[in-house]
Specification:
This protein is an alpha+beta fold. It contains 27 helices and 37 strands. Strand 9 and strand 10 form a beta hairpin.
Length: 971
Amino acid sequence: MSKLNHSEQAPHDVGQKKTPCTDNTRVTILSDIMEWAQNDSSDAPLGYWMCGMAGTGKSTIAKSLCLMLEEKELLAASFFCSRQIAECREYHHIIPTIAYQLAHYSCTFGETLERILEQKPGLASKEPATQMKELLIKPWDAVIKTKKFEDYSPVIVIDALDECEDISEVLKAMVPAIQNKQMIGLKFFFTSRPGKSVSSCLKVERKTFNSEGIHVQNFYLHDVEEALVQDDIKKYLKDQLQKFQNLQITDGQIQGLVNSSGKLFIYAATTVKYITGNPGWEQKRLHKVLNLSQAPDELQTKAIDSLYSEVLAEATSTSRQTSEEKKISLQVIHTVVCTATPVTCKTISHLLGYNIQDVQATVDNLKSVLYIDEKDGKVYTFHASFSDYIFLAERSGENHCDQSIHQVLLKDACFKIMNEQLHFNICNLPSSFLLDKEVPDIDKRIGENITSELEYCCFSWGHHLGKCIVDEGMRKILRTFIHKKMIFWIEVMFLLDKLSMCLDILGTALKVKLDEENKDMLTQLNKMVTICALGNIKGRTPHLYLSVLPFVMKEIPIFNNFSNLMEVKKTGRTLKQLGSWNTPSTVLCLDCHEVTSVAFSPDGERIVSGSHDNTVRVWNARTGAPEGDPFQGHSHWVTSVAFSPDGERIVSGSDDNTVRVWNTKSGTPEGDPFQGHSGWVSSVAFSPDGERIVSGAYDNTVRVWNARTGAPEGDLFQGHSNFVNSVEFSPDGERIVSGSNDNTVRVWNAKTGAPQGDPFQGHSDWVTSVTFSPDGERIVSGSVDNTVRVWNARTGVPQGDPFQGHSGWVTSVAFSPDGEKIVSGSGDNTVRVWSARTGAAEGDPFQGHSDWVTSVAISPDGERIVSGSFDITVRVWNARTGAPEGDPFQEHSNWVTSVAFSPDGERIVSGSRDMTVRVWNASTGVQDRDPFQGHSGWVTSVAFSPDGERIVSGSFDNTVRVWNARTGSPE
């Protein structure tokens, strides 16, 4: 159930203060609602909407209803929306939270939901229509079949719909399901203010339920006869005020307060808090309230506005405060209503630069409208109507909060605090060899070094920036922050495991009207963080400096300012590895753990995956169902997996420094783990005959193992002086090639481990990619030095000069099927084809992409090349001339991350950050069908099955999907 990402603060009995009705009040209304809840006739409406103006007591009634339903064991779930709490105002939390509670209410529902989540773990991030179908309707259908609830109907209570952002998205999915009786026996109770976003979705007329065909009963709370409401308010005021001995109050004065309240319970509640909020002042405050005069108004706001104004006037009166103290009080109030999320008095004091005692004094003086939560210590408003009052000048007058001004103040405060507190290695992590979670007392280190105010600023500066009007001063502040502190902000987001939020903030900043310099820098930073989020750098904060910074300095020059922070000479991973971590597919997440590697079996019937949960899994490629239990044995992340040529065995490499071989069918390990490496295993591969396994590791060595026994065949292949990034057998299985961060390529005798000649020297930077030619006579390598090199695989002699032409890192290289040509992709936004014999560029670079080329592939016949790019397009090129074949494929709306040809070369598949997979006619560029939709996160990797009938895709939504390549339907 942890996959549901439910809100813990939304239920009626947790989170913010939620008080029920005073005894013997709202009796008629509650009785009518309970009558609806317990009406089990077939024509009874399954939905009930209670609508009322602000302050009429909707939430209090909803709380009482929850308690009454609980007493009768009829409360199935509750969700109290709140604009103050992020998880209670974001619409995508509502259905998962209801499903989570229903799973605890009904065992049948829970068991069914669990099975659904095992098959589709990413449902919590889907759109409401999918959530509704998979998380509520299907599990409830299983409950219906048990006939357990034939005699009574459980109720779901959802309060304050109007305080939830984009609530119509949920209602558009939920209300039709209610009206079409797709969840018979389950009832829904809603409350909200009047408003089109709610009423247009409920599609009910303004009348009591009595029309056939309407399945959501509606009730307008503010239309209740005033005498009935005031009778309840009178009972409430007597109950609350007459218990104070210092307050002498007559029935006439009670009636005066009742008359002032009109139909607004919030007026009465605020009056009680105000009168009793300062011991010894009760009588004086009573007279002040009684002397307030309000003319009747249609919107019912003047009474509460007058009361709020009186509360603030007393708290900031000149007799009690100096003009400076009054300014402080108003700034505190404005901060409470303007922060992105509720904050503590300490955080407010740092944001405003005030003494914490002054902030606490202000909050204490305003106990009738503000309160400090006992659990989290943060400051909240009692009611949303107070924020409504403060933000409208015509209602609040001199107390008005001009958001255009105060948001600038908070934005500046965020940057000031971050500039003061952010610094290198903020939590004093002792070693880059430890995962963050392995550092002793890591939680204590974070708590002591990342203050509450710094955490708020790191999470919220983008929110405040997005609400400001950009001027040159703001651009200067942002430019300085990017140059001096941005890397340390990213470090904090690493430590707090908030890289996804980091990307959201950078995305928000990029939407602001910035100068070109700021925009370019933020764009590059966004790409860098994306790579980190997609790769295994997460949870390894020191590698932000060790593995990322040295690599991105060329593209993001500002980071040269930080090159001396750690003594490192390019010991980090390459771009290819940052994005894919030495695996053919990246970030394919199942069971909420990152999948670092996936591969089809030789017959295309199964998929193997390796994961951060330390396991290997085999899946049915057609159904997506797991085949057997996870293969357990590794004690750290699995980084690379592959099938043997006959499909009978699987090899896995792990960050626990071992290699393991498994029986594909049983999942049992074949022998003990292959132990011998003293660093992370980065790359593994079977020999062509399946009898041996080669592994490369971050202990700078290569090893060959007997695939049957696990015994090492010979000694370690030693010679590299830095991490081994890539290993591969020659086509005849006699040799092994390796590429390393020591800038060299080496060839080894696969049987003896003896190096065949000297290392191939010539690259001046990390070697990112190596591969044999189809005949095994040549090796091609790509490097961060922007060059491609071809070597004689026997002698190590370079065949000609380096292929120069790229102006950015070479990220991918491949031979054509006939071995005559080499294709390379680069960070300079181009694709190039070279003569494998002469090194001459065959034509000009394939220019047309306006951003990084992320993926290249050659068609099976060698005649065409496909490329995907960060410029959102897919392009096909004539491999001989370099001419684009047709226009770019432009249907994606975000970066293209992966491309591949079908086995017959007739189709191209592409995956994108727009969350879709698309299939194109390779000749015309026309899409074969609509995009394959289903992923709720970026698609990171795509591939055809060997027979071309299926497509597998991996995504940042924690799932792997298999699609019918012809129809686009998920299999």
